[in-house]
Amino acid sequence: MTKPPRKRNKATSATSSDDTPPDNLTQEENPVTATITVTAVEIPELIEQEIRDRLHLERKVERAFFEAGKALTELRDRRLYRSTHQTFEEYCRDRFSYTYRHVNYLIAGSKIVDNIKMGTNSSQNESQDEMGTNSSQILPTSEVQVRPLTKLEPSQQPEAWQQAVEEAGGKVPSGRIVKDVVQRIMERAKIPNTYQIGEVCQIVVKDNPELRGKGGCWGIVNQVNDFSCTVKLWDGGYTVGLQHLKSYNYLPAECEQMQVICDRINRVYSSGLEESVQKFLESLGKLNRAYLTGLEEKLLKVLELEIRD
Question: Where does the record place the region Disordered (predicted)?
Fold first, then answer.
């Protein structure tokens, strides 16, 4: 007599049947290479109002650094910081976390943009939009792009910018392209000595025994010769060859401020105070920034009062 199958075998058989692929999946169909159907979603075109909004917002982004420079100029000129801060530098640092040099770059950049706009508008007869710009006019979008133009005269800046735009294929040029254009314009002038009176430079000794002890000092150019400059340092004037000078590339406003600081330090040094004071003045003569800190300013004022008394 045949015995009935055990329940265990029946369960095993059931499990085996679960592993069997369904009838509608043949051996040739591999899930890894299965075709996935994706339904395309049509993206609607911008309507006229959306196009206007986009252009308006893009222009705001492009003019962000320009508007910042104009606003900082007004804050500085009207001294609107005076209720909370003694100096404009401290105000910008506390309020915006801007360094003094960055603020000067923004202010100078906004002036250059104005020069570019005026230079372009004078040669083009086009209507302006609500931002005061020609619809076809390419303007700088960052301070870095206009920084090299500070080395040129205001009358040269629009032409240099236009050349940079052309080299960039009609688009906003990079700072590197603008710098190259400016360099070529300066080379065409064929001036062997490109330093200018009032420019702030660093002394580079390069094995010159006459400049021993002056390495790293900054000075103000007060006379430009064919192959040298007369430079005023914290302790007097020196005639220095071009190979021993390195420009800090400060903005005009920074150069003017350093001129004032240099004159103040020199007056105190010339008064013949003790050696410890001269060491302090020498440390100020090696600053690599275009301003004094609050403590340095206080100490210098104390010394100025001392020599007056």
Answer: 1-29, 118-140
pLDDT for 261 beyond 90: yes
DSSP single-letter state for residue 46: P
Is the torsion defined by CA of 111, 117, 120, 125 positive or negative? negative
Contact 239, 229 (CB under 8 A): yes
The helices-and-strands tally (H runs, E runs) of the chain is 11, 5
Amino acid letter, 8: R
Amino acid at position 5, single letter: P
pTM (whole model) above 0.85: no
CA 263, CA 259: separation in Å to the nearest integer?
A: 6
Question: How far is it, in rounded angstroms, from Cα 199 to Cα 247?
Answer: 7
C-alpha to C-alpha distances, 230 to 163, 173, 191, 201, 238, nearest whole angstrom: 35, 37, 17, 11, 6
DSSP 90: H
Residue 145's CB is within 10 A of a number of other CB atoms, namely 24
* Burial grade of 131 (CB within 10 A; 0-12, 13-18, 19 or more): middle
Task: Report the alpha-carbon distance of residue 164 to residue 167 in Å, rounded.
Answer: 5
Say what the pLDDT of residue 190 is: 56
User: Is the Cβ–Cβ distance between 265 and 303 less than 8 Å?
Assistant: no
What is the C-alpha end-to-end distance of the chain, expressed in Å? 134
Q: Is the pLDDT of residue 241 over 70?
A: yes
